[in-house]
Amino acid sequence: MKTVTKDVLKSTANKLMFDMSDEQYDQLVEEFDILIKQMNLIGEIEGVDTAEPMTFPFDVTNDYLRDDVATLPENKDEVLRNAADVVDGQIRLPKVVK
Amino acid sequence: MKYMNLSIKEIHNAIIKGEVTPIELVKEAIESCKKDDNNSFEYICEKEAFEKVSHLDPSKKDSLLYGVPVVIKDNYSTKDIPTTGSSNILNGYVPIFSSEVVLRLEKAGAIVVAKATMDELAMGGTGTTGHLGTTYNPWDKSKTHLIGGSSAGSASSVAAGIVPFSIGSDTGDSVRKPASYGGLVGFKPSWGRISRFGLFPFATSLDHVAYFTRNVEDSAIVLNVLAGRDDKDFSSSFKPVEDYTARLNESVKGKKIAVIKEIVESISNVSIKQAFNKNITALINQGAIVEGVSIDIKLLKAIYPTYILISCAESTSNNANLDGVNFGPREPGESFEEIMTNTRTKGFSRLIKRRFVIGGYSLLRENQEELFLRAQKCRRLIVNAFNKIFEKYDAIYCPASPTSAPLIRGSSDTLSDEYLIADNFMAFANMGGFPSITVPLGFDDNLPFGGNLTGKPFDESGVLAIAKTIENLTGLKDLVAKEGE
């Protein structure tokens, strides 16, 4: 059975670009304990490992392509009004290349 | 005269007869929104609603939704109206376009009067995790019981008689469970039947547009407006739509209905079992063939963990765009990585983060086979088991919840294995994309509970017809939680 440690969970959270409190990681370790046990029970279900993974409820065949009609993009000012830091019609971030 | 307590059809007739105008309806709904004490709303669209209703085209008044107020869950984009998904990470966000659902409602003449509170980003089943706090059950004036979630405010606003119908979303049971706790009809049509364009994605392979009404006929009326192909949503179905009201009065004679024995047996509440059995007897008396069938209990117990793993995994990528850069509040940082990390650390609540970590962990290369892929494989087995039942039966019928609305105190979204079957089985309908409806079934200590009926993909008309008979047999329709009760 997999052992889930606080360090692994912290590293996972950091990869998803956020952090949690120590207490929250502790709580999560306990919850993972239950989840892993449940998943191990699933592993005992006959045929589970040979089943084909199901990614959507049913196959969606979509041969639609929209007509190639030129349209104007959304109004730039409207789009930018949701950004926290805008300068000269562009979203500003700290310097990336240093 | 109060109109928001009435059915959509009754309101429509009142408009046609000239007894009431759409402006008066909006006024009544907005005033009720303002008086709401159940924490149902993120935003009351007072200015926007009066603006829209004053420009309604009278030539469209034959539309049953013409001038009818509606509440929209706050995870549907509404142009020029704040939309937060009840998350601090989207405080102040104002979409520049409207979701297809909202566009279709508005085209039919419905007026959006408010955006509803919800569990944060639709993840959660309690109605307690949104950034505005707990949404209460209007049936319980002591405010000690949940309405349930995630479509909490959408449910409470219809249960309280503020609007005759509302839009929610359903990824595991987020409309059908609160419908049970609120004495409402909650319908999740087939995956692909209603466009999801503009609905904040939570778990793309499980997310469905769903909605609340107070009777089955209204549910069919709303589906007539919402159903149909939308080129903006590639998962939207090309299957032709029907007039979903056409078969409502069809008899259940000869209809084959399966009851999953293990689900009913796992329920201990006597009132629910009695009401369910009474309803089954009544259905049989109407000529329906109702039979108990079995599903491997291991598969039934697997529904919840399978749902959690798939939905959490999909949610991590669906919510990766919430980083404070393009929209939403931004936290300071020395680099863009720091900005994103600080924004997401502060913007997401603890429950959401926990779900993201579950998803992220199950997607790690070393865990994928044992967790995420195994869940997807198990999903196949679960759906196969239910499809096998649908080979012989028209519908599956079970109690929608093992209890009436639970107490708020002690209700946390833990991964406990209590009620693993009866409290979480309805996610099978999301996994298989089946149309699934909750209808009121009875009351336990003055709190309502419902039954859940699920049918074959795209057999919305068949499901609605049986649901209408169930409604006729219970006599429970147009329920509104009244003041002082």
Helix % of chain B is: 25-40%
The CATH architecture of one domain in chain B comes to Alpha-Beta Complex
Helix fraction of chain A, binned, reads 25-40%
Shape of chain B: globular
Distance N terminus to C terminus of chain B? 20 Å
Output the radius of gyration of chain A: 23 Å
Please trace the helix and strand order of chain A, writing H or E for each element. Answer: HHHEE
Describe this structure in words.
The complex is a heterodimer of chains A (98) and B (485). Chain A contains 3 helices and 2 strands; from the N terminus they run H-H-H-E-E. Chain A has helices at 6-15, 22-43, 76-80, and strands at residues 86-87, 90-91. The longest helix of chain A has 22 residues, at 22-43. With 485 residues, chain B is of the alpha/beta class. Chain B has a domain at 8-250: Alpha-Beta Complex (Amidase signature (AS) enzymes), CATH 3.90.1300. Chain B is 38% helix and 13% strand. In chain B, strands 1-3-2-4-6-5-10-11-9-7-8 form an 11-stranded mixed β-sheet, with helices on both faces. The chains are: A mainly alpha (98), B alpha/beta (485). The interface between A and B is large, with 55 and 77 residues.
